[in-house]
Write a structure and sequence with these properties.
mainly alpha, two-stranded parallel ribbon, 5 helices, globular
């Protein structure tokens, strides 16, 4: 699908799957999560510096694994409408702490928004 006219689509290239790719190696898992956080932070800063009225974040978990949740909060606050989805399940687990941090950050975001839909 193409974005509608007037929309800006930002998809950082090079996103990795920390829990799957690391195969239990916590050092590698966190390295990949930090790599993703660097990429998503740049995308969020790009939006913050030049916002549009509507912000859609598909899979906020990618940023929240190791990125600063405050950056996402700022992006949400500078938009008029934000639609954000994230994983908050228990089927993907890890012994490295990434899932715990993800759950904490998603729960924190839930407290700041008007509507939460659990699917």
């Amino acid at each position: 699908m193409r974005p509608p006219p007037g929309a800006r689509y930002v998809r950082p290239s090079g996103i990795r799957a920390p829990r799957l790719e690391s195969r239990g190696d916590c050092r590698l898992a966190w390295k990949l999560a930090l790599h993703n956080a660097s990429l998503t932070s740049r995308a969020l800063l790009q939006y913050i510096h030049s916002p549009l009225p509507v912000l859609v974040i598909n899979d906020a978990s990618i940023h929240l694994h190791a990125g600063d949740p405050r950056l996402m909060i700022v992006a949400i606050r500078v938009s008029r409408v934000a639609v954000v989805n994230a994983y908050l399940g228990s089927k993907i687990s890890d012994a490295c702490g990434i899932s715990s941090r993800e759950r904490w950050a998603v729960s924190m975001l839930e407290g700041l928004v008007d509507e939460v839909w659990r699917l």
